[in-house]
Amino acid sequence: MDDNLLECPYCGEEQLEHEPEGVSMLSCRTKCEHCGRYFVYAVTVARHYESFRDDEHNEIP
């Protein structure tokens, strides 16, 4: 399954109205938009930080 898709394990349909989670969770319960069955899923949310210099605002006297 693609990282951006949530598919029903019963009918295999993509959940079109599903909003991506902002935090990782081991157990989330939802109802399929297509077949109406409830299922449980897990989600892992990863963050990547990158820093860079801001020489414009850090002038050395």
Give short descriptive properties of this protein.
61 residues, 0% helix, mainly beta
Itemize the secondary structure elements and their pairings:
Layout lengths: L24 E7 L6 E6 L18
Antiparallel strand pairs: 1-2
Description:
- With 61 residues, the protein is mostly beta strands.
- It has no helices and 2 strands.
- The chain has strands at residues 25-31, 38-43.
- Strands 1-2 form a two-stranded antiparallel sheet.
- β1 and β2 (38-43) form a beta hairpin.
Main sheet summary = 2 strands, antiparallel
Rg, alpha carbons: 19 Å
Shape assignment: rod-shaped
Q: State the total count of DSSP E strands.
A: 2
Give me the number of helical elements: 0
Order of helices and strands: EE
Q: What is the helix content?
A: under 10%
Distance between the termini: 54 Å
Strand content is 15-25%
User: What do the pLDDT scores average to?
Assistant: 87
Spatial ordering of strands, largest sheet: 1-2
Low-confidence stretches: none
Give the structural class: mainly beta
